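Handout, page 2. Input:
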Amino acid sequence: MKTARITYYLAPALLLGLVFFGCKKKAEEKKPEPPPVAAANPDVKVVATVNGDPITLAEFQERFVRAGFKPEHEPAREVKEDFLNRLIERKMMVREAQRKRIKVGLPEINKRIDVLREENGKDVRETLTGLGIDFEKWKSDIWEDLMIERLLAREVNRHVSVTAQEVRRYYQANSSQFEKPEQVRARQIVVVTEEEAQKILEALRTGGNGDFAAMARQKSTAPEAEKGGDLGYFARGEMPVEFDVVFGLAKGGLSGVVKSAYGFHIFKLEDRRKAGVISLEEASKTITEKLFREKADKRYKQWLRELRSRTKFEVNYPALAR
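Output:
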């Protein structure tokens, strides 16, 4: 066996959830290289130990499938090794949570499952069965997730705070981030032919463009037709260049017929927001969250190094090969 290469992740990335539930990959730091060791026995079925507790090849494979990897597709060696590193970190933290006497009960597990069911609009048990995943073992993964979340809340988040002075300093040092450009809110009608667009424009000008929303619902081929052609607010450059004609209209004004790759457009300007600067009060929540994440990440990495130094673990990467 040889020393593991443990990767430092942001806290949410440590939780080995299903791809079905929308996992997102986090950025990771460069892994330290392990010292060279002798080749492992190819018949060994233990891929790692954490404080004497084995992680068997069978357990690794089961968890690999539960995390959304397809067993019929042989992944790259680095993928398996990285997953094993994450599994080792997970075992380390679950054991630490138990040492700290953290408890998670069945009602909390069921509550988390209910949240996942509501978010995805799917029956969890039925979906897992279709994926060939054991429901009870997956519930055990949820228990571990909750244990780790509570551990990190205690050991990381509780030690992190952001002061009003830090928020103010960030705001002053990064003033360009809080500039907001001019924005307009517009409606559009899009049709296939220029002839049809001209007829609609004439009808709007004759009958008053107060019926623009109704006309959009009736005639427009664009996705927002059901919302009366409402495009919401947007700044210059956020839409195709043909939409920039809106910035030259008076409030309530109509454009002429504008051709684009999507068809023939008629625009109406509903509202305009002047360019300006987001106030410190408006930006405070966003800045606080950003600074908190940065501090929590730094604290987490420090805490994980300390936990790792107190943990005895070994890894047998060659045992992962088929």
